[in-house]
Amino acid sequence: MSSSVTDTGIDFSFNRVAAMVRRYWYLLRSSWPRILDLIYWPAVQMLMWGFLQVYVSQNAGFFAQAGGVFIGAVLLWDILFRGQLGFSISFLEEMYARNLGNIMMSPLRPAEFLLALMIMSIVRLLIGMIPVSLLAIAFFGFNLWALGLALAAFFANLILTSWSVGIFVAGLLLRNGLGAESMAWTIMFLFLPLTCVYYPVAILPEWLQYFAWALPPTYVFEGMRALVIDHVFRADLMAQAFAFNVVLFAAASFAFMKLLQSARVQGSLLQTSE
Amino acid sequence: MDAQNASAIAVDQLVKRYKGVAAVDGITFRLAPGTVTGLLGGNGAGKTTTIAMIMGLVTPTSGTVTVLGADMPRQRYRVLHRMNFESPYVDMPMRLTVRQNLSVFAQLYAVPDIDARIARLAADLDLTEFLDRPTGKLSAGQKTRVSLAKALLNKPEVLLLDEPTASLDPDTADWVRSHLERYRAEEGATVLLASHNMGEVERLCERVIIMKRGRIEDDDTPDRLLSRYGRETLEEVFLDVARGRRQNEAAQ
Description:
- Chain A is an all-alpha fold.
- Chain A is 74% helix and 0% strand.
- Chain A contains twelve helices and no strands.
- Chain B has 252 residues and is of the alpha/beta class.
- In chain B, strands 6-7-8-3-9-10 form a six-stranded mixed β-sheet, sandwiched between helices. In chain B, strands 2-1-4-5 form a four-stranded antiparallel β-sheet.
- In chain B, a hairpin with a 2-residue loop joins strand 1 and strand 2.
- The N and C termini of chain B lie far apart (45 Å).
């Protein structure tokens, strides 16, 4: 009989994390519509915004000089959006499968569960983004990978934000069941106008700019525009984004633990329907 | 060692209220290690809530639950790897094959030599030919056996079963009961079994706890219950308790 568990319950097992990643990988590879879905929407988005950019650039001098600003924005937005969606969908799969009770009753710790979901969000993201980034090169000559170190900084900050939002949504789902499912699909769209994905922060009314600068992705999208338009990598913006991300991640993790605690009080871990 | 720590499961003045309504209303019992106890009661009697609190999935409003010496749910990670359960309220992921599902849970429970353990359980529960089939393609009875296999993966010292034979044909159900008897005999596990099948409870359980409206109405061995109620079967005893006949007769 296993005796690898300490009294504190705060020990961490990468073996259990690997078990959960294996579980999601089995599910993903067993269903081609699931894999297609990872590529389909990012490709549609990229093509739509890419062709719009081609049209605008042929009619305005600024956009002719700042080629790639829309495609760059849409690809980075997809990292943020699909990162959260990948996290949340893996979690939702447990609810759809009525498997959450089995998992919560197992020795799997909440932190291990969350790490497995984070790993799967990256796996799902890469399955979707790699082909789409290659399409962007083929169709519009925009090479996301040429951003190099900047791309790594953008990606790290965006994925951290997506995980924070995913963790918070997972807590809501535990507490409220599938009644909170729509949050998983829609919550990130609140970030779309506020984080200034397609326009500079200066466009917003001054009072709204304070909210925008409190969100880590805003720094990333400003940084992307600085790189594409002015050819300057703003490390200061990335550092600020990271600082806000640390706070956001801690707050989301705290909220998750509180919502999990509340779910145990409400008895909603066994009954996870709406 | 005090009585609470000597028990495999100790439940003390346990209360669970949902929005002021008591689902479990001040129950107390202790289960000795290696015993099989039946938890009987009609729908809404509080059986599932009681089991959920023992598993640490639900936090009690008041009272305490101790499993293998650990206070639940606070110290649950001390003992979760020594427990397991089967319940109609949960399923195994349908798209994964039986082998994939069992191997994922075996890894979660840190089961040594996973392949051998799965092969042994598959042989014991007649699942070998279904191991590489998606779980969702199995019949209800086959799924129940897969859930039972999952519940036995880690050779639990405490096994909580909620209606383990509910969707099985009589032959398979009998076969599963035999397996549970053998498992208890070989491993010395403590089993708490919630069931509506009185024949199953009579056969498997040395003690029966009958719940009604969140309270324990009676708690004794099957033989003594039959004798006290003057009945031939536990089903008749259950009906007496459910319909309040015993209290009515006492009142007359």
